[in-house]
Amino acid sequence: MYPIWVVPYLSSALVIGLIASFHILPSHLAVGAFWFNVYIEGKAYREGRPELLSFVRRYTLLILIFCFVFGSLSGVGIWYSATVSSPRGISALIHNYVWGWATEWVFFLIEVATIYAYYYTLGKVDERTHLRIGYLYALSAWISMIIITGILAFMLTPGRWLETGRFFDGFFNPTYWPQLGARTFFMFGIAGLYALLIAATLKEREVAREVSRLAGAWGLFGLILGTLFGYWWLKKLPPEARDFLFGGTLPYLSTLLKVAAISGGIVGLYFLLFGILFPRLNNVPLALLTLIILFLGILSGEGLREGVRRPYIINGFMYSHQVVGADLPAKGIASEVEVLNEKGYLSRLGYLPPELRTITEKNRLSVGRILVAHECANCHALSPKGLRSLPRLLKGLGLKTPEDLAGFLEGLDGYPYMPPFVGTEEERLAAGAYLSTLVKENP
Amino acid sequence: MEPLALYLQHLRDVSGLPFYPWLFDFLLVLTFTLHILAVNLVLGGTLVLLWGRLFGGSYGRRLSRSLSRALPITLSWVIVLAVAPLLFIQVLYDPFWYFSNVISAWWALAFLALIALSFSLLYLYYLRGGYEGAGNPLWPLVAFISLLLVAVIIHALSLQALHPEKWPEWAAKGGTEYQSGGKLFALSLPRLLHFLLASMATTGIFLLFYARYFRPRADYDPNYLSWAARTGARLALIFSLLQAAVGIWWLLSLPAEFRFYTHPLFLLGAGFGLLFILYLLLVRHNPEPHAGRIGALLAATVFFMSYTREALRMKYLSRAGYSFASYPVHPSWSSTALFLLTFLMGLVILGYVGLVVYRAGRGQKEVGAHGWGRLSVLLSWLWIVVMVIIGLALSFKNGALP
């Protein structure tokens, strides 16, 4: 096991979540925007209306800066935050899907080459070539989504991979197609809203109105179809995930779903009213406000997607505290739970000095803290304030003594959304002793 | 087995490798070479831009205009070219990369924030007058400083990964009860300088190509282009000599038992480096016609030096009883083929885009090569169709659909 990075108040998992959710905006814009862009550009050439190109230029600059500065960096940021928060989790994904990511990388290269070529050669090369560069960008960006969705969906529903360990068995898994459909169409929604925002900044009012109307139609179309695929995705969720969401086991998940749905509704109304019906009313402050609402919706949607996977990083295989919980004979993998319960979690903490790897009366609290950090701090704040605060939760359960808390840890996986607390009885008692100090210190 | 070696073995990913390690190693070196060349250009280019803007006279200012446009584009390439080596290093050296990052977690994240800052500032400079030769030099200056910090961070993270024997000590120093991630622990000045100095040499060679590329364009003053080429060659020569000196310093600072000066890869890299310097010396008065050969020598030097860097890493890690050669392999032929075929296809498409940009930059409006262009679009669609067919077939077979 690697050392643990403890993030005060937020928990390290939320750091990944925040970066990943932010990444959705530029990344989905990068994927969806160009279909709209080349559509407008083609229209400009076909109808001999060069004034439409002013939108194309400005829209591309937005994509260039927003997507290729903040989008690409936040993409790498997901990796980095996962590296420091959940190294064994990202490692398991990479060791199974490295060729998927490497394939996606080829399309990243094409995206970078084509976006700059497109922006800097607008008006400098023949129309046919320029449009083709735009199409190549749009195709590559969409393919990158086709690939990454496989890996994302794999984490929730690894499907047959759990038996065969084979790349494509996990890639084309039960939630792959609905998620790909939802992301593909929602990206038109995001692109439509950005297009409305850019259109509102154009000086040529006629162009602004026309682009707003078209963007509204594209956006609404994307939103409606995306919602249908989202519904299909909900239907394809594994039974335990559906129970978390609809059965009241984890009520915050249904709240997230409501927030996502309401945000989607507001964005849809904006498309209808300020895009399709009254495009002259489309303006920058309102479009920005709607964008913030959309972001809230995305944040909730992604939070939901992560939440229904509990208590796993890779469903049915690796727990959220990075312990492998299942056998995978095809790859010679054995569950680590039994071994660690027998030999002790400390047996794998080779970075600790020997005196901290055996529990004594003197070091019990220190070791307990280390064990709690390893097994809980990914998702729980250790302070009384913060995300899923341990002192607050334990106090709510009325648990105080080390023995009670150790007993509670022993039965932890009785909660379907919690991983088991792994380790020997002595280790549970040390963790319980430390947890009891948390409860006592924070009355 | 030694406790450290056992610990490292336990840190390895349980899934093993999806292909034989030599391929990942080769791809790591290849993509790192491309990445580091782009890194060098951004770092060196920012400094040359600042110098040109502030002290370079009319030619220097002209050069700063071109660089203001080239640098944000290059930084994009730096980032995208970083993805592949970052991926392959995690495949082969996961215990080392992850451990080093976790104990310096805040720095690993600051690394990205600083790149975002430099990127934004370089764009700001370009869009706010930099391309007219009148931007505020404070922006590239701050960008340069934060890029230097970025270099120090990635240097420290890489170096920490090479010293597992020191990890327990560093992990304990990290903060109360081993849980902070707020410190960096390792620095080797000759190693860091060796990477930094290369930036100026690479930027110098870039100037040579710049002069040659724009030579046919009537709107570029031929005297200015000759100046750029000469300046580039001089920069490359001076900084390569400095780099060679620092390289010797680094070599001497390595553990004696490595006897690294006898390593064939090192000798090959150093040999190409020496040829590069000698050739630059010979043609320094009129370097422009030799740009192709000089560029090839630079590429060969950086490629073999990158391989040498791997050899050095293996030396360090073998002290801890680790070698990636013993990593269990479960070959995934299908996904390996997916990548390799896609990579070839990507080269075809990138070649087309490169040709369009090359011709457009030379002022050619009808760029031609429509057959190649149509093939590129067709290949992209074909890729999608093939994946969808495989995907649907497998999904129905496995019961993932309907």
UniProtKB/TrEMBL annotation, chain A:
Entry keyword Magnesium: no
InterPro entries for this protein: Cyt-d_ubiquinol_oxidase_su_1, Cyt_c-like_dom, Cyt_c-like_dom_sf
Membrane-crossing residue ranges in chain numbering: 12-38, 59-82, 102-122, 134-156, 176-202, 214-234, 254-277, 284-301
Membrane topology qualifier: Multi-pass membrane protein
Main location group: membrane
Keyword Nucleotide-binding: no
Record-linked PROSITE patterns: CYTC
Compartment(s): Cell membrane
GO biological process, one term: aerobic electron transport chain
Family classification: Belongs to the cytochrome ubiquinol oxidase subunit 1 family.
Name of the protein in its database record: Cytochrome c
Phylogenetic placement of the source organism: Bacteria, Pseudomonadati, Thermodesulfobacteriota, Thermodesulfobacteria, Thermodesulfobacteriales
TrEMBL record, chain B:
Transmembrane regions listed in the UniProt entry: 20-50, 70-93, 105-126, 138-158, 192-211, 232-252, 264-282, 294-312, 332-358, 378-396
Record's keyword annotation contains Transmembrane: yes
Keywords, comma-separated and alphabetical: Membrane, Transmembrane, Transmembrane helix
Oxidoreductase is among the record's keywords: no
Secretion signal span: none
Name recorded for this polypeptide: Uncharacterized protein
Provenance organism: Thermosulfurimonas dismutans
